[in-house]
Amino acid sequence: MDKLRALKYFVEVVETKSFTKAAKLFSVPPSSLSRRIADLEQSLGATLLVRSTRVVKLSEIGQSYYQQAKQIIALIEQSDESVKSYQSSPMGMLNISSMVGYGERILLPLLDEFSQKYPDIILNVTLSDELSTLGKDDVDLAIRGGYAPDERVIAIKLMDNNFIPVAANSYLQKYGTPCSPLDLAAHKGLYFKTPNGPTPWIAEIAGKWQDVSSPDALISNNGKWLVDKAIEGGGILMMPRWVLQPYIDSGELSELKLSPAINITQNSNLGVFLLYQRHRYQVPKVKVAVDFLIAKMKEY
Prior knowledge:
With 300 residues, the protein is of the alpha/beta class. Helices cover 41% and strands 25% of the residues. It has helices spanning 3-16, 19-26, 30-44, 60-88, 100-117, 169-175, 223-231, 241-250, 284-297; strands at residues 49-51, 56-58, 92-98, 121-127, 141-146, 154-160, 163-167, 189-194, 197-198, 202-205, 208-211, 216-220, 236-240, 254-255, 262-263, 271-276.
């Protein structure tokens, strides 16, 4: 038995006081509608309607059941409207996971603007350099640096993520300016600690990739602290250009021009990627967030 349909039939019969009128509204035969309500009464073990040749009345228990059934139908219709609205308007909780540095420097200011534009979307933002798995970790959007992942997700490159070496002028005056990757052995290194450990510095020398890392002076997963230590003259630091460029522009740090250049990977196609599951793009809150971030990152 389709209980919801039976409830709707029952409520309509009560309000129209007629099986015939109710059946006409639902475009079904009166006998079919009557049979559905009889099945409902049988399943409840109670008589809801008192039938006569001229009028249909509620029984005592039927009056109570009618009020409850009407509320149930109203709640279901309200829920249906909410779902339809959710599927057509940007609203609801949007779960975003971003690597810390990008989140603090770029994403959070953009999300302030996003919230003003889409006030019905509730942002739930997590900044972490630990990897998140879309779907499994209840993440709608993830922003990660590195390579386009092998996961079955859409990966849109928001910006390059090339690493560059920098140091403060005070450090270079004290320890000298390295010109070759091999010179780094005599310097102090400030290293960012990823979930896989500190990121080594490598260079292609005589056709072979070599680890040319300076001796450790400091290792941390706090990028801002590492930058501060570099500005204080604590050592040479390698981080993405988008992180360091403001400090280079202000003169607080100087980019080192080594020949050959050093890197953190043999693959030069590093990027910052926006990740999301293909089917989730049809959800309005996800679609507007993806479109917004892509449009904004074109300005960088």
